[in-house]
Amino acid sequence: MVDDGSAVVVMYPDLYKGLGLKPEDLAPYSSPLMSFDGKLVVPNGMIRLPIQIGPETVEVNFIVVDMYSPYIAIVGRPWLHALEAVAFLLHQKVKFLSGDQEKEELIEFLKRNIDVFAWDACDAPGIDPSFICHHLNVNLSIIPKKQPPWRPSREHADVIREEVMKLKWAGAIKEVFYPEWLANTVVVKKKSGK
Description:
This protein is of the alpha+beta class. It folds into 2 domains: 9-96, no CATH class; 118-194, no CATH class. 24% of the residues lie in helices and 18% in strands. Strands 4-5-1-6 form a 4-stranded mixed β-sheet. A two-stranded antiparallel sheet has the order 2-3. The protein has a two-stranded antiparallel sheet with strand order 7-8. Strand 7 (85-88) and strand 8 (93-96) form a beta hairpin.
């Protein structure tokens, strides 16, 4: 199954056994995964295997889990990025760029239509926030921990204030108060140097 929301490539027991892999073939991997039903799953390990799609062969890290699934594997973003592919889940298709000419045509198409892209929340005022909002998958039974507040440097405070004003102006965020929970703002420099 192709899941473009998955940050890992998962291998289930049927494929693991079908390939004749043994426990000693696995490298350690101790980071737990979240299953579709919200339970934590501790992987058996990780193995790097080549995957061939048409003329392209890429090596992908599979996280091996020992649990039932109707699928033999779930390939996610790492696999899609390695193959420079795009998944169309509605149509159950995966599109690959087949060569340099197709890549050049795609780049030219994107350049001709650059005006349709919103590079910042301010470029898309009036868009319903529920359409563009990210929601955290949190366990509501765990009490959040309030972090001790710290003051950012003057330079960071100016950048934070400017970014918050842009997002508020676009209607992407609104002011809310969480007396039980506070996370300090972390400023990260963009590739553009901003």
